[in-house]
Specification:
Elements (H helix, E strand, L loop, with lengths): L3 H23 L2 E2 L3 E5 L4 E3 L2 E2 L7 E9 L5 E8 L2 E5 L9 E3 L4 E4 L8 E11 L4 E14 L6 E5 L4 E2 L5 E6 L7 E6 L2 E2 L6 E3 L5 E4 L8 E8 L4 E3 L3 E5 L1
């Protein structure tokens, strides 16, 4: 007759085995959680598998969910073969990439942005195990930022102590642009005299002091690029 200690030990061993199996199953397929793409360029939604592809049978589908839109089927496949494309309009927009179920977007545009869902059924013939794997990749599509241009008001290099100075930074091209201001190549933070607009494209120094003397520039960035403006000098008398 088994004692309570032995039963507890067996239960712990079974729990550990189940936990290990669950962890293995959750890690047999990996996709990046976020991919930042460049408008007009290609993007590969790569799938990494931690098993020998020749030892399994795979069936799966890729779906896309656009912001505020429904979940749309892109492609269904079995092993290396495409079974079905959702519609003819997707024929040249998305390419299934065997052998590991990756998906290629040959030319990114705004419509390519969103969440891509991969559903996989993986059959291991040797053990007769069937594993379900579901993964999601969030894709953003952006335009690289152009070189930012800064302006200062008043435009004169030398300004009077206690005067207000307004700096503006603009880019001609770029999406989801974030701005940062630098003085003598060091970031400027909010203070009682440094006020920034909501997107940081405008900096107001009010009032200006002699310790504000230096070289100013702005940095513009988004997910895929960053550029710096030329410098403007500020002198205070």
């Amino acid at each position: 007759m088994e004692g309570p200690g032995r039963r507890t030990f067996i239960a712990l061993c079974l729990y550990t085995a189940l936990l290990t199996l669950s962890e293995v199953n959750s890690e047999i397929v990996h996709v990046p959680s976020v991919l930042h793409g460049v408008k007009g360029k290609s993007l590969l939604l790569s799938v990494e598998t931690y098993f020998r592809l020749e030892d399994v049978e795979i069936q799966g589908s890729w779906y896309q969910t656009r912001p505020g839109g429904p979940k749309t089927l892109m492609v269904t496949f079995h092993n290396h073969t495409v079974i079905m494309l959702a519609s003819m309009r997707h024929r040249n927009r998305y390419f299934f990439q065997p052998p590991n179920a990756s998906l290629l977007i040959p030319r990114l545009d705004e419509a390519a942005e969103g969440d891509y869902h991969l559903d996989l059924d993986i059959h291991f013939p040797q053990t007769q195990e069937l594993v379900r794997a579901e993964r999601t990749v969030h894709v953003t599509v952006d335009v690289p930022v152009s070189t930012p241009v800064i302006q200062k008001t008043p435009s004169s290099t030398v300004v009077e102590d206690k005067e207000n100075v307004t700096w503006t930074c603009r880019v001609e091209n770029g999406t989801r642009v974030q701005y940062q201001w630098l003085k003598n190549n060091m970031p400027l933070d909010v203070s009682d005299r440094h006020q920034f607009s909501q997107d940081n494209s405008t900096l107001v120094i009010s009032p200006v002091r002699k310790k504000d003397i230096g070289q100013y520039r702005c940095l513009a960035r988004n997910h895929i690029s960053q550029r710096q403006s030329h410098t403007l000098d500020l002198s205070v008398f």
